[in-house]
Amino acid sequence: MRNLRARYTRDRLILIVVIIGTILAALPLTLVLGYALVNGFSSLNWDFLTQGPKPPGELGGGMAPAIVGTLIITGAGLLMATPFGIGAGILLAEYPDNKLNPTLRLLSDTLNGMPAILKGLLAYVLVVKAQGSFSGLSGALAMAFIMIPIIAKTTESVLKLVPWNIREAGLALGLPRWRVIMSLVLPAARAGVVTGLLLATARAAGEAAPLIFTAFGNSLLTYNLLQPMDALPLRLYAYAISPYEDWHRQAWAAALVLLALIVLTSLVARWVARGR
């Protein structure tokens, strides 16, 4: 009876420690979100979502070019990163003895650990220098560099969870290995792969440093990836370091919009993961 009581006490103590740790971990995020709501909610209106920025010193204006640019740059980056990330994940998971795997894993880990600003500099050298101007395309390439290792790692992990019986059944029917992977293995891991794509998108969408050297920013609304393009992280950074109080409020509102986009993407990823 005494041992049972002691075990019950330890269980309760550990539960309390876990709850306290969870609260402490969530407290900074809650404070940041609350501070952003207090300072930026007043600037959230229809004009903020549909108009472009006003000249320095003028009140009002909005973030329409930045919102549209964020969606275009992030979407284009995802289109670039998806085939490379999924392909690398397939090679690592389905062909573990391939001679390229050690090098591929090293490159993936290095790219994943590289600071985002260095990925922006890499995109600057590859696209901006060659093109002769800043562009949304170079920003999308920088986003792709951020997404590729995340997609590759997630794809590799979820493919390894697919039972080998599925592969053996396809091979027993005489299907080639690539057809087994494309028609049986990938569909079985579809929810996990999509989750990885969404998480990579959410991870890249909030990066400002790579876009400073690539997309550069544009106060005018443009859909042309070959021209400089605005993005929420860029506009937020520019407004945050400005001397204008109204721009500071709009920066907080931009942070709220960006946070909402990232949270929405994360929630969709969790919903897809639960639907497996």
Could you name the ranges where pLDDT drops below 50 across 5 or more consecutive residues? Answer: none
Taken as a percent bin, the fraction of beta residues is under 5%
Average pLDDT reading: 88
Based on secondary structure, the structural category is: mainly alpha
Counting DSSP E segments of at least 2 residues, the number of strands comes to: 0
Helix content: over 70%
Distance between the termini: 44 Å
| Structural Rg | 23 Å
Q: Order of helices and strands, N to C?
A: HHHHHHHHHHHH
Major sheet: size, sense and barrel closure?
none
- How many DSSP H or I helices? 12
Overall geometry comes to: flat
Could you outline the blueprint of secondary structure elements for this entry?
Blueprint: H1 2-40, H2 46-50, H3 64-94, H4 101-113, H5 116-131, H6 136-160, H7 164-172, H8 177-188, H9 190-205, H10 209-212, H11 232-240, H12 245-274
List keywords for this structure.
mainly alpha; single chain; 276 residues
